[in-house]
Amino acid sequence: MMLIEETTVPTGALPVAVFKEHLRLGTGFADDGLQDTLLESFLRSALAAIEARTGKALIERTFSWSVTRWRGGCEQALPIGPVSAVVGVTLVDRAGDQELVDAESYVLRPDMQRPVIAAVSGSLPAIPNAGSATIEMLAGFGPDWSDLPADLAQAVMLLATHYYEYRHEVQYDGGCMPFGVSALIERYRTVRLLGGGTA
Fold first, then answer.
1. Is 80 helix (H, G, I), strand (E, B) or coil?
2. Using CA atoms, how far apart are residues 185 and 120, in angstroms rounded to an integer?
3. Cα 185 to Cα 142, 154, 193, distances in angstroms
4. What are residue 168's DSSP bridge partners?
């Protein structure tokens, strides 16, 4: 199985100005925007790290997920959340030919921890032998920074600040996440059961 981020977080959705205030950087100078690209990179890195730890997409964007078999015949848990829409399901045979599945034959059951795509009746469409199914979905809390829960937004700020303050460190310290960040994201982490339930 393979999860691919089809669209990236737009620069306009990143709170660079808020991050500057959080860092208490000086303002009113001619070179105020000089560090914007650097600050954006730390915000993106913090977002990616927290998304990896929680299994959640923070800022809304499109993902595609390919599987070679369904874990359950009538439903399939999705590997990321929250999912607001399934854009489409495509079956791909061994020759690469594609068939779009009728959107009326399945339904999304939203869930913060484990969203599920389920057959309306019977089973999900059979995946061709030596083929795959690709699910395209819209995942994330919303398109804007303000859509994030306050604790996750704070966790991103704290982690991005950690990256900024230790940007010149070259010694490896084990890659541990700061305690404050870990505490803030703990309730969003997905509890893995039966090998994750998404394979």
1. coil
2. 34
3. 18, 10, 19
4. none
Q: What is the pLDDT of residues 111-166, one digit of tens each?
A: 988 999 999 999 999 999 999 999 999 999 999 999 999 999 999 999 999 999 88
Q: Give the integer Cα–Cα distance in Å for 117 and 135.
A: 9
In the sheet that holds 116-119, the strands lie side by side as 75-77, 116-119, 106-109
- Whether residue 132 contacts residue 68, with contact meaning beta carbons closer than 8 Å, is answered with yes
**Is the Cβ–Cβ distance between 76 and 67 less than 8 Å?**
yes
Q: Tell me the β-bridge partners of 17.
A: none
Give residue 192's Cα distance to chain centre.
Answer: 17
Q: How far apart are CA 174 and CA 6, in angstroms?
A: 31
Distance between CA atoms of residues 55 and 129, nearest Å: 30
* pTM (two decimals): 0.84
List the beta strands (DSSP E) in the chain: 2-5, 61-67, 75-77, 83-92, 98-100, 106-109, 116-119, 132-139
Q: How many whole angstroms separate alpha carbon 2 and alpha carbon 161?
A: 31
Distance in angstroms (rounded) separating the CA atoms of residues 189 and 166: 26
On whether the CB atoms of residues 147 and 60 are closer than 8 A, the answer is yes
CA terminus-to-terminus distance, the chain? 7
